[in-house]
Amino acid sequence: MLKIALAQIEVIPGRPDINTKTMLTQIHQARQQKSQMIIFPEMSIPGYFLGDTWEQLTFLKDCETYGQQIIAASSDICIIFGNIAVDWARANDDGRIRKYNACFIAYQGRLLGNDNFPYPFRIKTLQPNYREFDDSRHFYSLRKLAIELELNVSQLLQPVTIDIDNKKLNLGCLLCEDGWSDDYAVKPITALQKNGPVDLFVNISSSPYTIGKNNKRNRIFSAQAKSVNAPLVYVNNIGIQNNGKTIYTFDGCSTVYNHKGDIIEYCPSFSSALTCIDLHLTADNVTCSSSAIPNDDRSIRTIYQSIAYGTKSFLTSIGIKKVVIGSSGGIDSAVSAALYTKILGPENVLLVNMPSIFNSKTTQDLSAKLAQNLGCLYTIIPIQKVVDDTIQQLSNSPIIDLKSGEKQSLVISPFVIENIQARDRSSRVLAGVAAAFGAGFTCNANKSEMTVGYSTLYGDLGGFFAALSDLWKYQIYELARFLNNEVYKKEVIPQEIIDLVPSAELSFDQSVDEGKGDPIIYPYHDYLFRAFMEHWNRRTPEDILLWYEQGVLEEKLGCQSGLVATLFPTTQEFINDLEKWWKLYTGMAVAKRIQAPPVLAVSRRAYGFDHREAQNGFYFTMNYQQIKERLLHE
After folding, report:
1. So what CATH class is 2-284?
2. E strands, 311-419, where?
3. Alpha carbon distance 405, 577 (integer Å)
4. What's the rounded Cα separation, in Å, for the pair 627 and 297?
5. 248 and 131 Cβ atoms separated by less than 8 Å
6. Of 71, 116, 202, 518, which residue is most buried, by most CB within 10 angstroms?
7. Collapsing DSSP states into helix, strand and coil, what is residue 196?
8. What is the rounded CA–CA span in Å between residue 504 and residue 512?
9. What is the number of other CB atoms lying within 10 angstroms of the CB of residue 440?
10. Mutual orientation of helices 331-344 and 300-318 as an angle, nearest 10°?
11. What is the pLDDT of residue 75?
12. Per-position DSSP letters for 27-57, written without gaps between them
C-alpha cells in the first residue's frame, strides 16, 4: 500500500515564485498527513500557456532555480512535479535553447530516472498541436529525441524505479497528451508497461475544461488502467490561463483509477485540493463513495461553474472590481448582468439602458425590472439626440473632389443608422460610463452572433471580456433558467425576457411588440453554425447540401426533426439561406472576430486563438456547385 497525496493546485501562469510557494505549502501538509508521495500537475512551476515567454532565457533559469527548491524539499517524501527542463548544450529545431516539457521525480534530495534514460526526468512524448495547443513551437518531444539518438521511441519509454520504505516501485510517468494516444502511432502507456512492468502510472496534466472532456477522459483512462492491470493517478491543475485571445479554465478533476479501471478517488472541480489516498497497488481498492463520483461535465450546471469560475478569476487577474453592462431588456445582457452580479455583488454592477426611438417600452421596463430583481445599480441614458446629431452631421458633410470641385452626399441608409446606434451605445456611452464609474464594460455577444458577425464593430462587439461568447443562443437560455432556478433560487431574470423574441431593436422592422426579431433563426442556425465551427472535421456548404439532399440534415446537425422543411419550403430558399450565412461566416465576420475581446472558452472549439482563421473570403467547392445544380434542376 502507498499513501499518495494528489496536489490539485491553482497554477498561475508566468509566476514560478507564487507556484513554488504553493507547492512547498502542499508538501508540508502532505508530510504532516504521513504521505509517502505527492503529485503535482504538469508545468506546475511555470504554468503552461505562456506564449513566447518560453523564449526568455532569464525566465527559464528562474524556473530551474525554483525547481531546485522543490527537489530540496524531497528529503523524506517523493515529489512528482512538472517543470520546464532545459538542455543548455543543445538547440531546438529553430536554433533556440533546447526545452522539454518534463516530469521530475525527486526523492531524498535528488532526481531519479537517469539510470535508464538520458536525463534525470521524463519528457512529454506526444505534443498536441491542435486547438489552443502549440507545443512544438517551444518544446522538444521524446519522439524527436528518439530520432536524434537513432533509437525507437519505445526504447526511451522507460519506467522510473524508486525505493520507498525498502520497497521497489516502478513508476510509469505520462504527461497529459501521452494518455490521449488513440490516434497516435506511439502508445506510451503500453510501451512503459512492456519495459517495466509498471506498478503505478502517473499522468500529470494541465488540461483545460471543455464540455464533455472529463467524461471521455474517464472512459479512456479507465480502459488504459484495466488494459495494463495497474492503477493510474491523474493530477490536473485549476486556475485560468490564456493565449491572449482566448481564456481557458482548468477544472482539476484529478482522479485515481485502480488496476481494474474503477474510479476510487476524485477531486472536486474548480477547487484547490490536497487529497490523500491509501492506494493498494495490487489488491482491489474499495470503490469511492457516490459523492466523489464525477458529475456529468456536459450539464448546464458544470458549464455555469466553468463560466462563473473563469470570469471571477479573470476579473481578479486583471484587477477589475466593477463592471458596466449595456442592458437592453434582452436575454444576453440579462444573463450577463445576473452572472456579474453574483460574482461582484450588486453594488459593483451598473446596468445602463440606452433607448432610442426604436426601443419599446416593453424592453425598457424589463431592463429596469432586471436591475430591481438583482439589486444592482441602474441608469438610463437616451441616445436618440446624439444619433440624430450624428446623422445630421454626416448628411451635412459633403464629400468633395478637390480636383473638380464636385460634391456628393453621404448615403445614410437604415443599415448605417443601425450601426450608428450600436457604436454610440458602446464606444461613447458605455466606454464613458465605465471610465467614470472606475469599471470595465462587458461584451454580451453570444457565439451565434460571433459566428456570422451579427454585431457592430466598435459597437456591441466592444468590451474588455466576452464571458458568454462560447455559448450558442440555446445555451444562453439554458443558463438563464439555471441562474433563476439554481443559483439565485428566485426569478431574477424576468420570465418575460426569456419568453421575448430576441431582437436588436435597431429599427421598427425589429419591433418586439410585433414579434419581429433577429434574422438568425436560432433553433436551426445554432446547429448549422456549430457544424461550421465546432465539428472536429469542420463542415462546409458541400456537407450541408449533401445532407439536405440525402434527407439526413437535421439528424446530422442535431436540430429538431422537420424544422428545415418548415423554415424553407423550397430548395432555392434553403440554398439562399445557406450561402448567405456561409459568406458572412467566412467573410466580414472574420474581420470582426479578429478584433473582438478575449473569449472565455467552454466548448470543443472557441473563437480566438483556438480557432485559427485568415481573411480569405468565402469559397464554395466544386462538388457543392454540382450538388446545387442538380438540386435546382430536378
Report:
1. alpha beta
2. 323-326, 349-353, 377-380, 399-400, 407-408
3. 44
4. 39
5. no
6. 202
7. coil
8. 9
9. 22
10. 60
11. 95
12. HHHHHHTT-SEEE--TTTTT-S--GGGGG-H
- Fold observed for domain 321-516: Rossmann fold (3.40.50)
Please, which pLDDT band fits residue 286 given cuts at 50, 70 and 90?
A: low
Q: What is the pLDDT of residue 1?
A: 85
pLDDT of residue 96: 94
- Which among 303, 301, 320 has a CA at the least distance from the CA of 312? 320
- C-alpha–C-alpha distance, residues 359 and 606, integer Å: 32
Range(s) within the chain of domains with CATH label 3.40.50.620: 321-516
User: What contacts 491, CB < 8 A, 6 or more positions away?
Assistant: 373, 484
Distance CA 67, CA 46 (A): 10
pLDDT of 290: 43
Give me 280's grid cell: 493498494
Closest CA to 79 of 139, 20, 125: 20
* Residue 345 grid cell: 455583488
Q: For residue 264, name the pLDDT band (cuts at 50, 70, 90).
A: very high
Picking from 228-237, 272-281, 307-316, which range would have the lowest pLDDT averaged per residue? Answer: 272-281
Contact, 271 vs 256, CB < 8 A? no
Cis peptide before 46 (omega within 30 of 0): no
| DSSP code for 377 | E
Q: CB under 8 Å to 436, separation ≥6 — which residues? A: none
Structure-block grid coordinates of residue 65? 532555480
Cβ contact 600:469 at 8 Å = yes
Residues 342, 334 contacting (CB under 8 angstroms)? no
Q: What percent of the chain has pLDDT over 70?
A: 98
List the beta strands (DSSP E) in 311-402: 323-326, 349-353, 377-380, 399-400
Buried b (16+ CB within 10 A) or exposed e, 467-491: bbbbbbbbbbbbbbebbbeebbeee
Q: Which residues pair with 248 in a beta bridge?
A: 241, 601
pLDDT higher than 80, residue 395: yes
* 323-358 pLDDT, tens digit each: 999 999 999 999 999 999 999 999 999 999 999 999
Over range 6-30, report the average pLDDT: 98
Length of the chain: 634
Delimiting residues of CATH 3.60.110.10 domain(s) in the chain: 2-284
Average pLDDT value for the chain: 95
- Report the relative pairing of strands 255-257 and 599-601 from DSSP bridges: unpaired
Ranges of beta strands (E only) in 297-384 are: 323-326, 349-353, 377-380
Q: Which residue has the higher pLDDT, 536 or 282?
A: 536
Is 593:607 a contact under the CB 8 Å cutoff?
yes
Residue 436 in grid coordinates: 467614470
Contact yes or no for 152/146 (Cβ under 8 A):
yes
Helix (H) or strand (E) holding 389: helix 384-395
| Residues ≥6 apart with Cβ < 8 Å to 226 | 259, 260, 261
Query: What is the Cα–Cα distance from 476 to 300, expressed in whole angstroms?
Result: 10
Say if CB 386 and CB 428 are below 8 A apart. Answer: yes
* 43-52, 78-87, 278-287, 312-321: segment of lowest average pLDDT: 278-287
Cβ pair 178, 193 in contact under 8 A: no
CA–CA gap between residue 505 and residue 517 (Å, rounded):
8
Which of these, 496, 494, 514, lies nearest to 505 by C-alpha position?
Answer: 514
- Residue ranges of the alpha helices (H) in 412-569? 414-423, 431-437, 447-452, 473-482, 495-499, 522-533, 541-550, 553-557, 563-567
